[in-house]
Amino acid sequence: MDRYKPNKLKEKIKKLLKNVLILVVISSVSIWIYKTYTETEVNTKIIDNNTEISRTSAIEEINTKNTEIENLLEQVNKSVVGISRIKNTGTSIFTKDSADQLGLGTGIIVSENGYIVTNQHVSGEKYNTCYVTLENGKTYNASVLWSDNDLDLSIIKINMKSLPYATLGDSNNLKVGQNVYAIGNPIGFEFQRTVTSGIISGLERTIKFEENGKEVYMSDLIQTDAVINPGNSGGPLINTAGQVIGINSVKINSAEGIGFAIPINIIKPIIDKYVKSDTFEEATMGIFAYDKKVIPYIDSTIDFDCGIYIEQIIKNSPADKAKLAVGDIITTIDGIEINKMSQLKEYIYTKKPGDEVTLNILKNKNNKEVKIKLVKKQ
Predict the structure, then answer these.
(1) Is 233 a catalytic residue?
(2) pTM here?
(3) Is the domain of 85 the same as that of 150?
(4) Catalytic residue from among 84, 233, 249, 317
């Protein structure tokens, strides 16, 4: 009887210990589940909050960018002008082919003292007079100081000071897909400073079209899907920094949704000289050459790796006197590689009549160095 009691006591103690252990395990599991759930909920809230913050930041960034672009366009618009070859044109929306009949177009002020860039077919040729309408609605007489029919570019001037003017960009650093904006007067002055947007859809484009009964080629063009209508001709194509990278032209007839602009870099040396000294004497060697990309349109049998193909030489010009000939290929000028006629023109625009340049040419498949003294273009 006495031996039974201790055994019973031991069993009770074991049972008690077992129950305590079970309670400890259950409590530990419960605490672990609670902590895990709480942390998960907190993390979920943090993720949700971070996602909301990211969305808000993205929206704010987009709104900021849109505001910046709107402000840039507003500033550029102040330097955009209307141009007409006929004074007091009045309204033109009901006039058929008003851009052609009245010479309506657009220009961009490039200096505070009244120099303006536009298309030659808008302003007319050198020494012509045209009429410029500023943002304030006032119209001024303008003189055509320089023009180039092949480039379809001209520089005109009004006698004004302290004008708002555009910043010129670098058309050599453009990329396909880049956002751009075209500004101009699409129908006439009652729709002046209309902005259309698009992207650069191609670079160094060559276009063939007919002018005055003959085939004409324009090369090294910027292609864009920004809408360019007749009245937009001569207006700026600008990048998202508000810089002018090209001058729009509808001299080139194209398919719907395809517009073209002339790269601004080619005319920058001329603008610089006019702005700094109020004068520009154009130097020339007396040739016209085609880019490699144009040659297949003219003669598919002509083939060369680099350079530009001389198509025409003016009689008694420096090139003529240096014995250059049609079919010669210019590969470098003063050590600079040349692959586009626009590159040659841009370089020559930095020179003065009387300056000497050194050409490397390919004549009858033989390399030759030729020195040419530039003269003033008549």
Answers:
(1) yes
(2) 0.78
(3) yes
(4) 233
